[in-house]
């Protein structure tokens, strides 16, 4: 052995002398290489080769391997051992260098780092074309291709997956990453990380680990492996023998693992042993100092024969491919010169040398070692044939170039987001829930504030919170000033938002910790952490925090799902992957109540095709381009989940105010089912009225009229022979359309305080005149279906007389405040900025102004903006809540507003046999060829349309809610092109076409 060491030393001295003389700049090596005796290596190769394997080749495969190997020169064989770093974001010079390494040095593979998918695909095709033997192509895609490449998808980190309890979801993620990797021409994904992170101070693993429990880590890593390999992409377990309990970044120095071999066998090796049984294709060996496995002081595990061969291959029985970690990392490159390190790593038992610093020099070292019999044919053949075997298994024996068309689209499928929703729904973890503060309920009694901490974006979180309730953002630098504002709120949500960029600091600042402690002591605080659970470690006292949620990351979907949990759209399922303190230990997580409120997800998750739904965009644009409406909001929900919510266009055709999802529209006749009807249902539920109740018993004004015998169900089914409409305003204006002084004033005052528009006030007793006119009107000569606004004007009068409350108050107290429909209201200018409200008309015949924030309907305007038939302003989200309440037969947020029987009674078509499609208050699908729907909705579906270009429709059988809001009447309502072109119906048809289950 001593003589062999001397021979190696002389070889390297001679080599570096020659290299220096030939113009290759080299430094004298600091450490002399100590090779493994040839006879030992040969014996060990035979022992490893004789082990059972998951990677057996067919006879054709063996012939291919032997044929290719026998055709290779020594240099070509040695070249197969090297996998070189490549970048698709560098210039042509870099590409030329890689191409030269392929053509001249015959390297065996490339590991791509930063760049873009299309560029990488093109480079891969270029490089594969130049290679005699097809190249291995690999990426670090631990959380998807987005780990390295722009314009690609990033899934949750492993630490987040450690909280996920449904392993099928994690395997599904492996499948998707495998599909994307294969699409980009990869054979290897250097994932999963199977380090057990038992050290919170670990600077390089941390969030990349599934957690601290060996069983949980193994289950999740195996799920990822199965998903990848099912798609024909080899998984690589890393970082052997275990990087989880270190405090040094191996990119910068050599970490030490000070555990006994017994501990390593029980803990760190456990995932490897289990995954080897399941067919793990490859292992990456880390650069670690492990004294219990390698007696030489500070000797990296990646070049240790004891670690790579004796432990990994012989003791643990692994016979897949073995990769070094990147050989440019300081942990190993500083240990010795790279040309020595490469050969040492190979002689230690590694098959593939990843990211060598200088391939040409390393190959020359290998060649000279071979010539001097320090490197044997057996050793070379062992690894090179294994490499060729995996190339055959990957299908590289019949390599086909990557199809570069549609790469971006294929890699960014909508199903990525669909899975992301499912993963976060399973991951978000609740650690505290004092007095069941989660989910937030009884919204009518809540006043909620939000305070932001951290330096990353929070826009999706706050916007989603506001979809459930009125949430006020409070920001104040001074702590006392902040508290003085918060003291009026019942609940304070604190969102801690840190960057999702890998390895970014996630720690609270000392100021943030002090603020958190102070606010928690003085308020009912829900703290939501959009960062690593380790960020909780500096918090010493959790006693004052009422609700504690860990959302793990700050992605948009994480924020959206977490907001859903806070308001009960989902229950909490996640479990901590790591221990924070004695109360919050690994695998701890509370379950919270799920409420039947609307949530959010991707269309695929409710059995809908997003590609078909996207056709809505074209219909919406057609409407805007055809001047059928200047803008609109469209929402689709299915199975209790909003899957499509978009806004289009502007408030006006020539304006620059783009419509947003939070803007308000005058919903016109949707008021009937959003305000008046649900209040009538409450009275029906209370048995104050029934379907046979006659109008004269409801309102005294009709006792002696021709309408006294109209039954309730006839009234609300538009089957009562009532006149369709009377333009009440015409009796109050002159022949030029100007308001008469007998009825109006420009300034409010007794008895002129009923506000009709800006600087226009109607005399207060005119409401009585309207009711008298309705009571005195003639009935239509024949009984039949005739839509009439009188129905709901009458119903409003009944409700207000019965309860002693105005309809706007009833609707707010009975429904809107409880539903969190805080954007639904009459007379929105009393609460909302005008610039959030779409205008409905430039009125030149009555009010002589742009109608914006005042109800478009003239009769409702003359009622002070509060009509039973019109007057409600809302947005698509709030309207959807009320329609979902109906779809759930009177229940929303686990509160029963009215009975199921009541809903069923009102959703019944009592006069279908007579050709009247209407339910009681609800419109229903057409009985013939024309009507309010696309003709594809079920007969149990219901809803309403509105004059301003609105529609709300729900289908119990398809579990669909569809909302369309627009201001098609702007600037005037002369021609209803929106209706003539069937825009709302065509969109509804697209929705039904998209249903796939």
Compact description:
The chain has 997 residues and is an alpha/beta fold. Helices cover 36% and strands 12% of the residues. α5 runs parallel beside α6 and α8 runs parallel beside α9 (214-230).
Question: What do these coordinates show?
Answer:
With 997 residues, the chain is an alpha/beta fold. It is 36% helix and 12% strand. The strands form 7 sheets. It has an 8-stranded parallel sheet with strand order 7-6-5-4-3-2-1-8. Strands 9-14-13-12-10-11 form a 6-stranded mixed sheet, with helices on both faces. Helix 5 (92-105) packs parallel to helix 6 and helix 25 (671-685) packs across helix 30. The longest helix has 20 residues, at 2-21. It is elongated, with a radius of gyration of 36 Å. The two termini are 71 Å apart. Mean pLDDT is 94; it is low at 1-40.
